[in-house]
């Protein structure tokens, strides 16, 4: 229990530190602070039946089939409702302009009008249309429900990945998408020591090694058509851009130890680069957490 408390304390300090070094990120990080702390607290406290990991086939994994396509990572029995209700007050604290949406969302959760499992079961086929349906049904603006649903999934998938991490250790994974949940990366890191590129998944928290000369999104390979955009005076911050697919990926350079930083918080600290890239006409590989489009 104390360990969990210490973890929340250190997350608070990490947020303070990022605000100190990037003062322009204060507004966004202050808005997200209660949500970040609450999702970690919830993740630590989840109780459920463990997933049967014996069905995971290493050969399939090595062929590029992520865990989510081999075993059910989002389950009907998961505590969707409890997690969703606990997240609402945290969002209300940080996002005052979403109060009406959050009230409507809360009513739907309490009455059972929203079946989150159905949303996640629909996954790639139908998931994109769910926020629109929630708007029709409960008048929750799509931007608000997307932000909320991503956070809800964050809690469930982070815990499940942690419980199953051993099953993908040393896997021979060469995809630009996450070996656990199949999402595209939200940020990448280049290590100081051997200039290795790591990709980070916002949705489940998995980090995986990936070539520096391949675009994680369209698999385009080679130096041509790919650039790194650097910020003056900030040699650690940059953006990977692929002209082939018009996507960008926030990046941190010269990182000493990937375990020492919280990449979700780092990504929010780079929100100004998201704006810059959007203004230049590039598209993020995943929806930016701070910009619920
Ligand atoms: Zn993932
Ligand atoms: Zn590309």
Task: Explain what you see.
This protein is an alpha/beta fold and 293 residues long. It folds into 2 domains: 2-168, no CATH class; 187-284, no CATH class. It is built from 10 helices and 7 strands. Strands 1, 2, 3, 4, 5, 6 and 7 form a 7-stranded mixed sheet that branches. Bound molecules: zinc ion (ZN) (2 copies). One zinc ion is lined by residues 215, 217-218, 220, 242, 244-245, 247.
Structure characteristics:
single chain, 293 residues, alpha/beta, 2 domains, seven-stranded mixed beta sheet, 10 helices
Overview in brief:
The protein has helices at 2-21, 26-45, 58-62, 80-94, 99-111, 116-126, 130-138, 142-164, 263-269, 271-279; strands at residues 187-191, 197-200, 207-209, 226-231, 234-242, 247-255, 283-284. It is α/β, with parallel strands linked by helices and 293 residues long.
Helix and strand arrangement:
Elements: H1 2-21, H2 26-45, H3 58-62, H4 80-94, H5 99-111, H6 116-126, H7 130-138, H8 142-164, E1 187-191, E2 197-200, E3 207-209, E4 226-231, E5 234-242, E6 247-255, H9 263-269, H10 271-279, E7 283-284
Parallel strand pairs: 1-6, 6-7
Antiparallel strand pairs: 1-2, 2-3, 4-5, 5-6
Helix pairs in contact: 1-2, 2-4, 2-8, 4-5, 4-8, 7-8
């Amino acid at each position: 229990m104390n360990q969990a408390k210490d973890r929340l304390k250190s997350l608070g300090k990490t947020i303070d530190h990022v605000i100190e070094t990037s003062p322009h990120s204060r507004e966004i990080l202050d808005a997200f602070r209660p949500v970040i702390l609450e999702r970690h607290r919830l993740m630590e406290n989840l109780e459920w039946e463990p997933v049967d990991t014996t069905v995971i086939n290493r050969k399939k994994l090595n062929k590029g089939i992520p865990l989510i396509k081999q075993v059910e990572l989002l389950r009907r029995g998961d505590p969707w409702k409890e997690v969703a209700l606990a997240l609402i007050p945290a969002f209300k604290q940080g996002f005052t302009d979403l109060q009406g949406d959050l009230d409507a969302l809360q009513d739907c959760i309490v009455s059972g009008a929203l079946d989150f499992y159905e949303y996640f079961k629909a996954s790639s086929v139908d998931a994109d249309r769910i926020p629109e349906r929630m708007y029709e049904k409960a008048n929750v603006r799509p931007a608000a429900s997307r932000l909320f649903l991503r956070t809800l999934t964050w809690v469930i998938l982070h815990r499940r990945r942690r419980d199953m991490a051993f099953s993908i250790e040393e896997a021979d994974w060469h995809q630009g998408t996450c070996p656990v949940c199949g999402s595209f990366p939200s940020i990448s890191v280049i290590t100081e020591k051997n200039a290795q590129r790591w990709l980070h998944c916002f949705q489940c928290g998995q980090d995986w090694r990936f070539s520096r000369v391949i675009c994680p999104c369209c698999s385009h390979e080679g130096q041509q058509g790919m650039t790194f955009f650097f910020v003056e005076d900030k040699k650690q911050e940059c953006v990977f851009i692929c002209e082939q697919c018009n996507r960008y990926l926030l990046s941190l350079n010269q990182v000493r130890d990937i375990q020492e930083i919280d990449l979700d918080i780092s990504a929010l600290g780079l929100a100004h680069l998201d704006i810059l890239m959007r203004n230049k006409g590039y598209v993020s590989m995943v929806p930016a957490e701070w910009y619920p489009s």
